[in-house]
C-alpha cells in the first residue's frame, strides 16, 4: 500500500485467499484491504489518536438516502446528542481531490447536515466548516481537534 501523509498506526493485516484484510477497530472485524480502505483506516486512527475524536461517536459507511438513491458515507462523527458533526470522504491515494469530489460530498451533506466536511486521499486533506443558513463553505487550515468543537 502507498505511504500516506498521515501518522502510522499499528495495523493488523492478514491474507485470506487472494485478498488482504485489515482489522477495523470500529466494525471489529477484518475488512478487504483496498486502496480506499487503507486511507479510511489511517484517517480513522488519525481522528481518534491524534485529534481526540471518541471512537464511540464515529460510524463507518453509514447509509443515507439522497434523491431516492442509497449512498454510503465513509466516516461520520456525531456530537454527544447524536447529530452529525463531521463528514469524511476518503479516496484512494491515486485519486485526486477534484471539484467533482467536493460536489459529491456536498450533495451527501445536504441530507446529513454535518457542520464540518473533510475530503482526503491520504496525501491531501481538505476541511470546510458549513454554514447551512448562508449555504457557504468556509475552508479551514486544519481539521479541528474534537475538544475544540
Automatic annotation (TrEMBL):
Pfam families cross-referenced by the UniProt entry: HSDR_N_2 (PF13588)
Record-linked InterPro entries: HSDR_N
Annotated ranges, domain Type I restriction enzyme R protein N-terminal: 35-144
Name of the protein in its database record: Type I restriction enzyme HsdR N-terminal domain-containing protein
Species the sequence originates in: Pontibacter fetidus
Amino acid at each position: 500500500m502507498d505511504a500516506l501523509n498521515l501518522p502510522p498506526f499499528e495495523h493488523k493485516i492478514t491474507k485470506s485467499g487472494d485478498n488482504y484484510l485489515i482489522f477495523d477497530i470500529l466494525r471489529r472485524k477484518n475488512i478487504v484491504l483496498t486502496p480506499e480502505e487503507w486511507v479510511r483506516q489511517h484517517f480513522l486512527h488519525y481522528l481518534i489518536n491524534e485529534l481526540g475524536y471518541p471512537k464511540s461517536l464515529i460510524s463507518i459507511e453509514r447509509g443515507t438516502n439522497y434523491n431516492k438513491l442509497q449512498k454510503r458515507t465513509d466516516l461520520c462523527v456525531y456530537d454527544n446528542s447524536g447529530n452529525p458533526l463531521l463528514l469524511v470522504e476518503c479516496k484512494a491515494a491515486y485519486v485526486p481531490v477534484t471539484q467533482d469530489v467536493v460536489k459529491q460530498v456536498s450533495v451527501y451533506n445536504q441530507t446529513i447536515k454535518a457542520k464540518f466536511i473533510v475530503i482526503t486521499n491520504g496525501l491531501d486533506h481538505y476541511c470546510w466548516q458549513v454554514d447551512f443558513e448562508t449555504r457557504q463553505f468556509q475552508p479551514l487550515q486544519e481539521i479541528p481537534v474534537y475538544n475544540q468543537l
